Amino acid sequence: MVKILIFGCTGLVGKVLIDLIKARNFNCTHITLVASVKSKGKKIKVKNIEYEVISAIDSLKIIDLDIIFFCSSATLAKKYCPLYLKNNENCFIIDNSSYYRLNDSVDIIIPPVNKELLKMGKRIISNSNCTTAGLIMAIYKLNDFGIKKMIITSFQSVSGSGYSGLNQLIREQQDNVIENPEYCKQIHNNIIPLIGSLNSENITSEEEKLIYETRKILKNNNIKVIATCVRVPIDFCHSLSVNITFNNDVLIKDIRERIESQEELILINDDIITPIDIKDKHEVFVCRLRKDNCLKNTYSMFIIFNNLFRGASLNSIQIAEGLLKEYFNN
Ligand SMILES: NC(=O)c1ccc[n+]([C@@H]2O[C@H](COP(=O)([O-])OP(=O)(O)OC[C@H]3O[C@@H](n4cnc5c(N)ncnc54)[C@H](OP(=O)(O)O)[C@@H]3O)[C@@H](O)[C@H]2O)c1
Prior knowledge:
This protein has 10 helices and 13 strands.
């Protein structure tokens, strides 16, 4: 039985994580809940026990934590994770922010595809960006055929930006004025072809993350990835249109077989699916798989998944369940 801490327990990722801890009966003896000072003192019930939310500073006094779920910004991960590691000699940190992902020595783990990396015993484990997580689930086994290039367009829900994105959409739908909007443009009845900040080559930080993390997880820096990430006015679920070129010809039946053999990935052959259809599902879905008749050795597909499950909270809890098995005799 382990002692856990959830940093960002009142955010979208933190709240879904708490729901999953209850639903999956995650084996822990004590939970420390951390949020900003504005949430300090709030009471949250987890598995019949009421816990009081404390501030980050107060949580630094704790010295016997086993697993920390970090569900807040990269800036706060940079500030607090090293302090938790210093104070809690043997603890593991599962980071949902982008802070540790860019560190070459930290593994990005998506349990259905690469949970064996947990055996390495590294104390910091990174979740991927939510968009990368859905993409990797769909194409991981196709990498055996030799992926040469991918052209990706993402359609990302506002919950991907946390509470502030969701609030902007809701307030705009109600015709309310927003004082500090999350997005540079209206999102209600609109789409925004910019997520994050632009670099000198007109590529956004979200697109950079998708490209870097995909190559890192697939352990192949030669894959060409061209990405356009777009914010769309829906509450939950991210979608991706992916055009994928292989080094050699591959039969569509072999692609189907690989997709169908991946756990937690569902191929829809004769129908389409939409975000509303799969909002409550944990799996990643692929539909519209088809040969590209213009380009050699190329296929197209459409991927949909709930960003808060596969892209964040579900992924975190699966990593933690793996740690329990590997290091806590559970
Ligand atoms: N949303 C997604 O789909 C998704 C997917 C993958 C990864 N992520 C990443 O996961 C992280 C959390 O995302 P989110 O969507 O849950 O964000 P969010 O809804 O904005 O929640 C942020 C959380 O951080 C807490 N917080 C803010 N300042 C704090 C401080 N100074 N000390 C302690 N806690 C503080 C907030 O507490 P208060 O409520 O008290 O302000 C809240 O609990 C981010 O790094 C995000 O990029 C998100």
